[in-house]
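Long-time lurker, first post. I've been practising inverse folding by hand and with some scripts of my own, and I keep getting stuck on stretches where the structure tokens seem ambiguous. Below is the full token string for one chain I'm working on. Before anyone asks, I'm not after the true native sequence, just a reasonable design that respects the backbone. If someone could post their per-position residues I'd love to compare against what I wrote down in my notebook.
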């Protein structure tokens, strides 16, 4: 697997959940490796003058998104429950994912956090929820959370968010294939096709 698809995701993003559920299987079928890139949309939205999710700021867009994501999950057999709070703060989860950078169980952790948020309606900002996920993956929850709160990990996550911004990322999920940006879970196939060609 020579080619690599960069997958930039934010834990508050509904459509990133869909992409996280599908990307490994589709990439493996295309013989393409996935580089998992957690980042934070908050600072990017803030630069656009948004202090909340655009789905909350624009009610018609939000109403469409909730129905759309329900339809997509139903059609793909992905578990879905509308969360009672949206968007949830994914900062700590993003730090944990950053701390797990390159680890074998990173992808499994990411999917478990998304399922906790968008299938089980759990508060992913709570350390207890993340500890339970880490335990379920046979990862040392205390050591991993301690590492997630290390200054080096915080700096790396900030640097990743700055990198996303500098490369033109404005939403999640975003994919980079041969340095070309593809935005939205429905662009995953096109991004993979670009790498195959």
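-- Answer (accepted) --
I ran through it position by position. Result:
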């Amino acid at each position: 697997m020579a080619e690599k698809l960069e997958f930039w995701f934010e834990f508050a993003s509904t459509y990133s959940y869909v992409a996280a559920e599908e990307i490994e299987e589709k990439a493996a079928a295309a013989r393409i490796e996935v580089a998992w890139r957690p980042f934070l949309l908050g600072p990017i939205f803030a630069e656009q003058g948004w202090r909340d999710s655009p789905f909350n700021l624009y009610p018609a867009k939000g109403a469409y998104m909730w129905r759309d994501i329900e339809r997509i999950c139903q059609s793909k057999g992905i578990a879905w429950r509308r969360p009672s709070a949206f968007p949830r703060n994914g900062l700590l989860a993003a730090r944990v994912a950053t701390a797990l950078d390159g680890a074998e169980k990173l992808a499994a952790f990411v999917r478990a956090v998304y399922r906790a948020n968008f299938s089980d309606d759990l508060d992913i900002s709570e350390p207890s929820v993340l500890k339970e996920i880490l335990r379920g993956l046979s990862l040392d929850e205390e050591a991993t959370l301690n590492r997630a709160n290390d200054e080096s990990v915080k700096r790396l996550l900030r640097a990743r968010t700055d990198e996303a911004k500098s490369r033109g990322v404005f939403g999640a999920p975003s994919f980079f294939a041969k340095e070309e940006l593809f935005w939205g879970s429905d662009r995953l196939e096109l991004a993979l096709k670009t790498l195959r060609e």
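A couple of notes from the structure itself: The radius of gyration is 16 Å. The longest strand covers residues 4-9. Happy to go over any region you disagree with.
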